[in-house]
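Dear colleagues,

As part of the handover before I leave the project, I'm documenting each prediction I ran so the next person doesn't have to rerun anything. This entry is a single chain, and its sequence is reproduced below.
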Amino acid sequence: MGEARSQSDLEARRRAVTTYERNLVIVAGAGTGKTSLLVERILNQVVEQRLPLRQLAAITFTEKAALEMRERFEAGLVRLAALAQASSAGVLDPSQEADRAFAYLSERLDRQRIEKEARRALAELPRATISTIHAFCARALRAHPVESGVDPSFTVDAGLTLAGLLTELWQEFLEGTHGPEGLQQAEWSSLLQALDLRELESLAFQLADFSVPVLPGESARPDPVAVLAPRVRALREQIEALLEPAAVPDRGPESYLHTVRSLLEELPAGGLARFREALASASFLSSRGRRGLLDGAPPGAKAKPEATACAKDARALLEAMLSIDEELVARAIQLVTPFVERARGEARRRGILSFDALLCLTRDLLAHHPSVRGKLGGQYRLLLVDEFQDTDPLQYEIVFFLAEAPTTAPSDDPFRTRLEPGKLFIVGDPKQSIYHFRRADISAYHQAVAHVQACGGQRLALTTSWRARPELLEPLNPLFESLLQPRTELEREVEPDFERMQSGRDAANDGPRVELWTVGPAQQPRPAEPARRAEGEVIADWIAREHEAGRLPYADVAILFRALSQVHLYTQPLREWGIPFSLESRHSPLEHSEGLELQALLRAIANPNDAPALLGVLRSALGATPDGELLRFARSLDGPWRYLAVDPDPQLFPNVARGYALLRDWHERSLSQPPGELLLRLLDESPFLTLHAAAADGLQRVTVLRALVDRLVDVARLDPGHSLSTLLPWLQSQDVLPPAALGEDKVRIFSVHGAKGLEFPTVILPDLGRNPGGEDARGAPRIRVAWLPIVRALAVSTDAGYSASWLHHTWEEKRHAQAEHKRLFYVACTRARERLILVHAPRQNRSRQAWVRFLSSWGYPESGLGSDGALEQSPALLHRVAEPQSAERIPELSDPAEDWAEAVRRTQAVAEQAARQAAPLFQKPSGLREQEEAAGEMLETEETPALRSADRARLLGLAVHEALERWDFKSRDALTAHLDSALIRAARDSAVEFEALRREAMEVIQGLLESGLPAYLSSLEVLGRELPVLFRDAQGRAWNGTLDLLYREPDGRLVVADYKTDREPSPEARQRYQEQLEAYARGIALAFPEAPAPAQELLYVRTGERVRIA
């Protein structure tokens, strides 16, 4: 049986990476190597089908995943080219995607073809679309601003700017013709008797912020009975399973349920109004006589817990159905719809778009503009989507519109599109769908997969785990088969199918690798807090003893929690035992003060009109502006807070003036410098990093800031199309910050959500008796809005009444939460590579949804077991009773002198880290030596020995290049005027004498003006001056520079040219500059792939000579 499963998995993998003519949905279980499979598939198709990378789009769930995929694809191409180039490939490593791809490709193509295509793809890599769906949508909207109705310079808003806009527009709305005193006074007056103005404001704001992906008037208004039908049917089926078929119970919960069942049977025919009338008169027989269904609590019986629980659920539903008020909800929505429409329009016009807006507007763009859909979809031959199970349902719609076959009539319903065969490659694992709180919807996932299959696509399952030992999977497979496998159609809507996993690793053959600890004494339950403390003591004791014995490095251990709210009860024993640990969670960088200040600074630099960001900079450590000064400055303003338009008086507002000057300087730099270079300079040349390094937690702040900037620089490097503003959304990623304990010998503590995508040698799961909790209604708004993607309807709840769709929504949320609760346990257990330990101290108060209840299929009771050994129902699992042990040693208090020494070392480390220069990010076509030599040659004159300084040479060179950039090659006076203008600015900024600079500059350009070079250049088609060049070569090096001139010769050939100030051409100069021009030529060739290789020329400014290098 194992061999059959192995062969089945191998066949699925083969089809996944070699089937190009069908759409594929890959179900990749935990540890099956989905990223490796994705990269292998791309390598195969790019090489075998000569797929241009501009026709590839890979959509990932996080920015980190996008970066990892791009890097692994690049490394795979490099490896593939090397294997093809070698005379013999040697022994291939089947664990490497490039080696597997080479093995497949070499059976079909010759080595020269493989190498050629791999190197071609490396050169095209910057043109590949590998990004999150939000980044993809942002590019699509910017490319079609007219059709989408957005300002193409929009920024992605985290909420603050949009909230300010909504507040501003709401006041205007209330005072306008659509407000309470306008044309609909009677409607407002009637509605305000049920809802107050604050509730209507909340409704309007929730509808306007794009979290609801349609305008209110575009949503369906389904029949309440039809909306409630699934919930009613589920309750009826539950009641049927509890009642005897023919018996009529005379009392107790069964009597109550019998009456409820009869009442629910009449709902479809009579409608909601008649149902309410029947409910008012319905009664059942209780021990106290006949009672109405809503007269007090339903009857219960300790001997019949399932019937008692069902009766409680039935009563809650009946009571809720009395509060349905479709008319109230419809009237409220109708009154605020004009505000919603205007608010969304203003957000688009002003360029204030949230992440939800990016998805919503892109879906609308594709749905309502078939020509745009055809154009965008036609750009791609292959769409890869990763983590499909955690995708917002809107993303399914976007993907299906893009994958629509061009030969079919466009459909405005994404689930009625005919998908182009071979265009979609989708990877996901519904068993790991744990992000419902981010609107991931497993029901929508099932619907999307079904659509792909209905259009001829194929579902393939990967069932071989390269992570877990066989001894781990042996007890886990039957556990999750019983836990996750759906048993009814209703369960199938929210549950995944479970397919048994097998290990691709060798067995250790050293006994069980899954352990279950009962924290004793057995059969003596504790309150929750002492139970957790006891678990923490047991865990710390075991880790300490295993580490002392040399069997367990601290870094091999990860302790995972469903929630971190009581984690201190576990970390305290670790401290007492002297065990180093790192508490890690994937919080957004914006939860760190330094991350917030960096975001405000970058937003303000990128957008001078971003008033909230400007205020944030002024109030930060960098701005250091007291609130009193800010208040006085605000009162002095007549217009907006724009640092380009306002010049604060430095005598009255010294800190504001300093902040404005700093932002003006960096904004001007941002207009000419690539964003990656700008970010590195910002840390090195501004006091921003130093100020944070001086804080009490300076080392941590510096680490966070370096990590943030490094990530942004990496993103800019891999996608040269980024600007500073388009990099900003990456700061909101939860995956930007590196794990704090990476490379350190520390126990790592995660939430399960934080550990998703990671793996550890030893995983410990405590707190199995924890109640998962639920929604905290105390902080919930009085009006709540939700969008139901399956029925495409709004769900609205108010204190005065709600829509029937809201009842459906709350039921669905409960079902999803219960199902996701089980999947979260699956994710936790499948993080382990070598050993899994589950720790349970029995609790006094038991939860129906505690993880420990899932272990019943192993024969483990919630009350625990009292003896060690293998479990009868699961012999591959080892149980032991663990008694809590207090720490045998408590670390002594450190000597004060050592504390001072540590403080000094820490301060020194902060200073060194703040000053440390990273390795050069880019290769420079113009190296430092060449620049220094050119400066020296420019100043070699007998008349001006005083000008022989590097600073003056730099100023002079910049001025000459600026003048040549603006000159039309025709008018001598124009060149002189441009040169004077540039020299005036240079002299003013540096206090160098203008006339001295001008004399030298005129001598430099004299030979140019007297030569024939200007006339020749004026006759050509100039394509660019001072042209930024940024690209990655085949060896993986990133090149960044500025090309002086790009033009086209009469025969159509492109020429890259660079101005030089040497006194005359020489063989030495030719050799010195050849690599520089070759680098520029390679970059230009990537931008003009269809054109012949560009020629390379040196233009000597002093003599007017033109020297062809290649």
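DSSP finds 40 helices and 28 strands in the chain. Residues 804-829 form the longest helix (26 residues).

All the best with the project,
I.
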